Amino acid sequence: MATTTAPRSKPLVKAGTPGEKQKRSLTRKQREAVAAYAFLAPDVIGLLVFVALPMVLAFAVALFKVDGFGNYQYVGLANYKLMGSDDQLLASLKVTGTYVITYVPIAFVVSLALAMLVRNKFKGIGWVRSAFFLPNVVSLVVVGLLWQFLLVDKRGAISSLLAPFGLEDVSFLGTPSLALGTYVVISVWFIMGYQMLVFLAGLKDVPKELEDAAHIDGAGSWQRFRYVIWPLLRPTSFFVVVNSTIGAVTGLQAFDLVYVLTAGGPARSTSTVVLYIYEQAFTFNNIGYATALTTVVVALLVICTGLMFALTRGGRFDEE
Amino acid sequence: MSADPFLNRPIGRRSVLRGGLGALAASAFAGPLLTACGGDSSGGGDGKEMSFWNFYGPADDNGPQSKWFVSLAEQWNANNDVKVELRYIPGKEYLGGNVLQTAFQAGQGPDIFLISPGDFLRYYNGGVLQDLSAQLSDQTKADYLPGMLEARSVDGKIYGLPMEIEPLAMYYSEAAFEKAGLSEADLPKTWDQTLAVAQKLTGKNKYGVMFETAPGYYQNFTWYPFLWQGDGAVIKDGKVAFDTPAAVQALKFWQDTIQSKVAPRKALGGGGGDVLANLGAGAAAMQQSGIWAVSDMRAKGQKTKYGIIPHPTPEGGKQATDLGGWAFVANAKGKNPEAAAKFIAWALGSTDAEGVERGRQWNTVVKTNVPPRKSVQQAADSQGAFAEGVLKKFVSEIAPTGQPEPRFPPEVYQPIADAIQACQLNATDPGKAAADAAEKIDTFLKTYQGAPIS
């Protein structure tokens, strides 16, 4: 590409007015660096102000007893010690754990299956892809209200569909043994379109000639998927797993959706750890304790993500 | 391929150390900063504008309740230098959200706001409730019905002025009873009868009876009468008294309604208190709710023929209901607590004709409540507000059996909520649930240092 910048050996000198001290201009490399930082600045500043600073402040607040009325009392690590005897915290961690180990794999498989389904072009593919993606563009509050409406006891659309099987009395959101599973299904329905798009992007990077070669060698559909597509999709899969794990623990569906659907009930069966933190902060006014809990959840997530990195050798799938 | 270049970048040990040290340094800096921030909301100023946060008006629907609030502010503002500015917060957000708590935490709480008995101690113990006593005349204090001011008082000082009394009762659908071949003679008086009648009323698209199933303050509020019917209590003489046969039987009664499949596990619309969306829509034949539902049915459920009965009792039990109701309170750390207290005393406590009429309008015209003041009740009586129908029954038969809604701090309310939920929806043994809740409450009471719990 042609460039109009001055040769590197000849530094640009601005002609100054008489008596003004001559200034050396920036080199091309320096100018590029300045431009790069300028482009990065909005994101970096945003991250610092809205993510990094609150995180640091959270660590500080966790060392105080905060009563919700502006009063702070330094308590050191007391908030962290309290967690050891908090049964409800353990119960909510269990709910979140169950949610993660069911939601993440199901969402993964469903999204990948959908991506494979709409990978090749056919008539109306745009509509099909849009239909799968549609739930993801709706606000989670609306999603929660919609499903509440569909799952109304005895009178909802789902109950009507199940009536011929004698299951019209099943209360999906009112029965503790069913509520969490229902929450998982709705979460998968919501996220599958987005993850499908991520997988589609990954599938586009799988060289067609490799698949064709395998086909010529006699590999069937499953074998082509298992031995050609799947290995090349691993970086995408890694991203999806990490992303959906973080989303399942602290994402919008871990609070907004469950808050609207069940508010943590029935009988705390859907009380996720984020919901429990909210309860501690805004029902009990234990803001210091709630903040300490957030730091622990973040630490757990960092450990989980670190483990995933370690197991996959830092996500360097291309260096096998 | 790499989905994200950052995922491929190894995290250096030095980077982690640098980040950690940075966080620690910032913590050391932020601690004193936060402490300093917390201390500057002492209030007591002489601001010329007071914010009044509420869940009635000015609302988009510009309904009668919204208009009452707007008119209240306009009347005050026309005659006073310190103006009131209303801020409407939708009910669900006000009751279940965090807008109020966040504002107080930031030292930006409203000057005047609405509070339920269930939240009284949280705000009192937080030191943000202004003593209203000095602004209330003896005539005003004497005008309030017994127990109304006491429930919002600490050490003889009054911190909230109630705007209404909201007793609970059982609503029943006349059409549902007729359809099931039942008559008024079949209206249940006992818990056993309730279960038997509900069985007959339960059908393909309808439940025979309905109680609140969503966890929260409201569910506790609606369950207390069943506890009181067996002479039970949560706290007696400063000590926990929850692990008793009265609590166990009340927990079991609600459990039985679910186990026998005569009550829904999840309510429609706004929940257990929403008569219009449940009984009005034909989804429940009997439903526990409060007096507020009468005005709801007047406005939008005129086609539904319904009646009310007192809560059915256990064998040998006594009649009981819960007298809920919201109060105006002033923020002691607000911009002008004195003026806020004066406004509240004027708005709800004025004993002149205008003040009484304002109370009558709120309690019997734009909303249906039992007025908390004798003079307002007399004015309403003179207009025939309680002369007949369900309101007559509420005032003459149900309200006299009531107790003011308990003012429990969250640490007491939550174990009870967990016990109710566990028994009602998770088939937990009521005896065990009551014992577990009692233990938690007992642990809390041993270290509790706030205002008396009642």
TrEMBL record, chain A:
Keyword Membrane: yes
A Pfam family that the UniProt record links to this protein: BPD_transp_1
Protein's name in the database: Multiple sugar transport system permease protein
Transmembrane spans: 34-64, 99-118, 130-150, 170-194, 232-255, 287-311
Keywords tagged on the record: Cell membrane, Membrane, Sugar transport, Transmembrane, Transmembrane helix, Transport
Coarse class of the protein's main subcellular location: membrane
Family (UniProt): Belongs to the binding-protein-dependent transport system permease family.
Residues annotated as domain ABC transmembrane type-1: 93-308
GO cellular component, one term: plasma membrane
Keyword Glycoprotein: no
Record's subcellular location: Cell membrane
Biological-process GO terms, alphabetical: transmembrane transport
Positions of region (Disordered): 1-25
PANTHER family attached to this UniProt entry: ABC TRANSPORTER PERMEASE PROTEIN (PTHR30193), DIACETYLCHITOBIOSE UPTAKE SYSTEM PERMEASE PROTEIN NGCF (PTHR30193:SF41)
UniProt topology in membrane: Multi-pass membrane protein
TrEMBL record, chain B:
Pfam families registered for this protein in UniProt: SBP_bac_1
Keyword Signal carried by entry: yes
CDD domains per UniProt: PBP2_TMBP_like (cd13585)
Domain of life: Bacteria
Position of the signal peptide: 1-30
Keyword field: Signal, Sugar transport, Transport
SUPFAM superfamilies, per database record: Periplasmic binding protein-like II
InterPro entries in alphabetical order: Bact_solute-bd_prot1, SBP, TAT_signal
The protein's name in its UniProt record: Multiple sugar transport system substrate-binding protein
Organism: Kribbella caucasensis
